[in-house]
Amino acid sequence: MTAAEFQVDLVIPTQTKYLSLIGSIGEHIAKGLENYSGDKNALAYQLNLVLTEATTNAIKHSNSDNPKDTVRITIHIYDDELVIKVYDHGQGFDLDSVPLPDDLQESGRGLFFIRELMDSVEYRQEQDWNVLEIRKSLK
Amino acid sequence: MKIKKEKIKDFILLTPEEERIDAHNSTEFKEYILDLIKKSEINLIIQLDQVRFIDSSGLGALLAGFKNAQRKAGKLLLVNIQPQVLSMFELTRLNRVFEIYADLDEIFESEP
Fold first, then answer.
1. Smallest Cα distance from B43 to chain A, Å
2. ipTM metric
3. pLDDT tens per residue across span B72-93
4. For domain B3-110, which CATH number applies: 3.30.70.1280, 1.10.580.10, 3.40.390.10, 3.30.750.24?
5. How many angstroms separate the CA of residue A91 from the nearest CA in chain B?
């Protein structure tokens, strides 16, 4: 992996009205990948969905008592890989303890989508942020 | 959230006039559906031709409607789903839970 070709760094209030903006940025990035040989439209939907789910998750886990709380989203685009990081100030959760949803369960498919559509997912603490790091190979 | 509501035969046809169903509008969508079911409108068709994007909370809203309709011996059918949205149903295997039709004609061919 060489230096990032470009990166996007966003900070948004913890409000769901910004989800469509975040999702559409993912779509634009996918459609503009000149060297990607796979289905760009499929990747566009996937990035829209993964960014939407990860940001929703961060908003849900954020500190609802603080109206000035923010979620930070960074997207690094390398030649052969895309790395999304979503930072929140919330209490965090244990990624490994999130179960797969049953067929009729109404919630819990957000992380399922992220795991299923991307290549790796990690959740960790960095200073006073929780970070969900998602990687997708662009080969 | 803009939702068009029409009556077709014994069904209420709901057409969300939104490109996206996500965590921003899915609660409103779910409550709209559950409210109809509470008022005994238990046979619903949801037409998703304008919906280009759905997330897990949107699928959850549809599932809540489906389960509530079924509990009252009603039906919640899905119709006109765009291909990329349909692939989310397939990925989550919810295509095996919902009755999904290509278009309205297909529904009424199978309904007596």
1. 19
2. 0.94
3. 999 999 999 999 999 999 999 9
4. 3.30.750.24
5. 20
